[in-house]
C-alpha cells in the first residue's frame, strides 16, 4: 500500500458525511455518484473498516466513520483554503519576481523603468539579477529574463519586445590614424575588440545588399564580458568594436563614434522577454510582461534626446 494518504477518498468521505447522501455529495463536488462511491470504497478498503451503514432509506456513519468525519471535514476545508489562496495569488499581481537582465541594458534601460512598475504594483517585489551570462531560467529558479539574442531554446517561451540593430563603430580619431575599412575583409588588419558572451563564438557576421555574407573573428587588445566596457577604449580611438544600438545610439548621434562598412550590416537581433512557460503563468509575471511590452515597443534609445 502506498504511504501517500488518500486525500481524494478522504475528501469524498467528508462530503458524503456532511450531505448524508452520495448523490448530494456528487453534485456538490461536480463529479459522478459512481466516482464518489469508488472513492469512499477505496478509503474503506485502505482503512480496513466500513465508514457508513447503508440502507435503502438512510445513510449513517459507523463508529469508525463518526470518529473520522470531523478530521476529514477539517482536511477538506483546509485544502479548499489552500486552493483559494493559491488561486488568489495566481490571479492577483503580488509576490517576488526573479528577473535576469543583461548588465548594461539592465542598468541603463530597465532600472529606470522599475519605479513606475513598482508604483503600479505595490505588492510585487523584484529580485533583479544583472549579468551578461545566459542564466538557466528553470534550473536557477528565475521567473523571467530579458535577452538580446536569436533564441534557440525551445523549452522556453519568448516574446519579442523590439528589434535591436548592431553596429560596427570606431571613433573619428581611430579612422584618422588607421584609415576607414570599407569591406569586412579589411577588418583583419585592424584592432577589433571582442565580447566573451556572444552566441556561437565571438564572430561578426556581416551581410551586404546583394546577400553576400562575410564572417570576421575580431582580434585586438581587449576582450570583455560586458559590452559597455568596450566604450572607453573605442572612444579613445584605439580600436573598432561591434555595439548594440542601445549602447551606440548616443555616441553615433553626437559624432563621438562613426558607423563603418557602408552597405554592410549585421543580422537584426531582438530584445526578448523569456519565461519558462505561458501556461498558468502567475499574475505577477503577466503584469511584468504587459509592462515591458508597453514600454519597450518604442525604445527610448530611438527617441530624440
TrEMBL record:
The signal peptide, as residue positions, is: none
One of the entry's Gene Ontology molecular-function terms is: sequence-specific DNA binding
The Swiss-Prot or TrEMBL record describes its family as follows: Belongs to the LysR transcriptional regulatory family.
Question: Which UniProt keywords are given for this protein, alphabetically ordered?
Answer: DNA-binding, Transcription, Transcription regulation
- What organism is the protein native to? Nitrospirillum viridazoti CBAmc
User: What Pfam families does the record point to?
Assistant: HTH_1, LysR_substrate
**Which Gene Ontology BP terms does the record give?**
DNA-templated transcription
Query: What InterPro entries does UniProt report for this protein, alphabetically?
Result: LysR-type_TF_proteobact-type, LysR_HTH_N, LysR_subst-bd, WH-like_DNA-bd_sf, WH_DNA-bd_sf
* Domain HTH lysR-type residues, every copy: 5-62
Q: Which residues form a coiled coil?
A: none
Q: Does the keyword NADP apply?
A: no
Q: What is this protein called?
A: LysR family transcriptional regulator
Give a yes or no for keyword Transferase in this entry: no
